[in-house]
Amino acid sequence: MSNQNKYSRTRDSLYKLPFRNRIQSLQKLFPELSVDTLKCVVAQECQKRMKGSHGRLTTSETVEVMYKKFTNSILMNEEPGILLRLSDEVGLTPALLARSIIERHYQRDNKSKPAKLLVSTLMKNTALIDDRDLAFETYLCLLEDEEYGPIAEATKQSKGYEYEIYLRMELENCKVSFLHEDHLRMKGYDKTPDIKLEIPVAIDGQVINWIESKALFGDEEVHRGYLKDQLYSYWNRFGPGLVIYWFGYVEDLEKIHQNRIILIRDTLPTNMVLMDQHL
User: Fold this and answer.
1) What is the domain range of residue 20?
2) Summary mean pLDDT of the chain
3) One GO CC term of this entry (predicted)?
């Protein structure tokens, strides 16, 4: 998906849907888009929204109200999924809501929050939570939340690594000589691209020296963040390069690079021109 209008329509439709089952609903509205692309757009837009509203939705007063709703629902023997329903009601993702409820549950008498390490440990292993109902409700939240929480993070990391390995295999099939991130770190580099080409290649007439793999969708905000944190460092050290957003990107991203040449594609180009290493 590189068309800006299609991206805007997808994003606008997203905000009209509840947290749960959004991917299935978007699939019906945009059948031409892959599930992975839709998941990336949903995750990134959700994170933007949470950045703006998380503080307001997790004040001590708001959390107290949510905690009382939860405990009352337990007393009334409501069916499981209490926190999931509360998540839809208040506009907080399931995992973030569960984390707030856990913090309130373990709050000390002086109303100080429990240690972050304790809360993180309980989120990673809900069997350690001392309340059976809260443990099960938290577990359901973590299963449902595709943007936040340990399961979501593990899935993102696994997906990222999967596409890095896929990129290496494609380069090997194309007989391209390269060093990957682990090799570069062994050589003492701190900020390293996923792939440093030992012999540069040309793509659409442009010579590139490195490739960065991103198993996500590239919108302007995401791309600007990567430019600041990673890509410009690679450009300064290694020269022109290529970023692959495997699940698509909005058009005209390359225009924000100014004079620094960083190509953007959604797959490894098949028209690479290999330089003759014997010349």
Assistant:
1) 3-144
2) 88
3) nucleus
- The encoded tokens of residue 146 equal 């595709």
For residue range 93-141, list pLDDT tens digits in order: 999 999 999 999 998 776 788 899 999 999 999 999 999 999 999 999 9
* 150 domain-assigned: no
* Mean pLDDT, rounded, for 52-63: 86
> Using the 8-state DSSP alphabet, how is residue 228 labeled?
I
Instruction: Report CA dihedral (82, 88, 90, 93) to the nearest 10 degrees.
Output: 90
The C-alpha atoms of residue 267 and residue 279 are separated, in whole angstroms, by 29
What is the distance between the alpha carbons of residues 180 and 195, in angstroms, rounded to a whole number?
5
d(CA 20, CA 13): 14
The contacts found for 32-40 with CB under 8 angstroms, 24 or more apart, are 33/1, 33/6, 33/248, 34/247, 36/159, 36/246, 36/247, 37/1, 37/217, 37/247, 37/248, 38/10, 39/146, 39/247, 40/216, 40/217, 40/247, 40/248
In a domain, 59, yes or no: yes
Are 86 and 21 found together in one domain?
A: yes
Which whole-number Å values give the CA distances from 62 to 54, 83, 92, 115, 216, in the listed order?
11, 14, 11, 20, 33
| C-alpha span between 194 and 107 (Å, rounded) | 43
For position 164, which CATH number holds?
A: 3.40.1350
Round to whole Å and give the CA distance between 245 and 39: 14
Number of domains in the chain: 2
CB contact burial 174-197 (16+ within 10 A = b; e otherwise): eebebbbbeebeeeeeeebbbbbb
Three-state SS at 258:
coil
Give the start-end residues of each E strand in the chain: 178-180, 195-203, 206-214, 241-245, 262-265, 273-274
